[in-house]
Design brief:
- By secondary structure, the chain is an alpha/beta fold.
- It has a single domain, classed as P-loop containing nucleotide triphosphate hydrolases (Rossmann fold, 3-Layer(aba) Sandwich), CATH 3.40.50.
- Helices cover 55% and strands 12% of the residues.
- A 5-stranded parallel sheet has the order 2-3-1-4-5, with helices on both faces.
């Protein structure tokens, strides 16, 4: 299969909510000299544009596929442009057919919920209920619209449990793996020289 080759590296960082996608992807982008993009930010932009909340847009997305299409179109354009670390549950799947290094982050459920509660300054019980509803809706929607099982990690090149080591050590592992990949595919990229 011939891959589309963007103008620069594409690194996707996938995984469920609360695994540390944004934290790790931002640090990875900085370390590799790439721009940081997030579907979460795109989703929040669309929610704001439509005058609704994140949960409101999630519920609406379950009934209206045009929301996912809009976010997907924006995501695909950014992937094809390249020179990006893309933090997203779907970007690894959307990057099929594009030269990209796909990373999956994971963490135990309790760790994820504590992180979400701290990040969003909410009670942990609310983090559990909102996140489980959001993930259930998203998993069903992704299966229905794309025939994608987000729980299938077979498309990834690297899977890392972010709960085992401090963030700094996780980022070192991710940067090392991504740099090794980039040296092979993008040897002229500044961090590879």
């Amino acid at each position: 299969m011939r891959l589309t080759r963007p103008d620069g590296p594409v690194i996707t960082v996938g995984g469920l909510h609360g695994v540390g996608k944004s934290t790790h992807a931002k640090a990875l982008a900085e370390g590799l000299g790439l721009r940081y993009v997030s579907t979460g930010l795109l989703f929040r932009e669309v929610a704001a544009e439509r005058g609704t909340t994140l949960i409101g847009l999630t519920e609406l997305s379950a009934r209206d596929s045009s929301i996912d299409k809009e976010i997907d179109d924006r995501s695909k354009r950014l992937l094809v442009e390249g020179k990006v670390v893309f933090d997203s549950m779907l970007a690894p799947y959307l990057s099929k057919g594009i030269e990209a290094f796909r990373i999956c982050l994971c963490a135990p459920m309790g760790v994820r919920m504590r992180r979400i509660a701290e990040r969003d300054d909410m009670e942990e019980e609310l983090a559990w209920s909102e996140t489980l509803l959001r993930e259930k809706t998203e998993l069903e929607r992704f299966k229905k619209y794309y025939d994608i099982d987000i729980m299938d990690s077979s498309i990834y090149h690297l899977v890392l449990d972010t709960s085992l080591l401090p963030i700094e050590d996780n980022v070192k592992i991710l940067c090392s793996a991504a740099t090794t990949y980039m040296r092979r595919i993008w040897p002229d990229w500044p961090c590879c020289q």
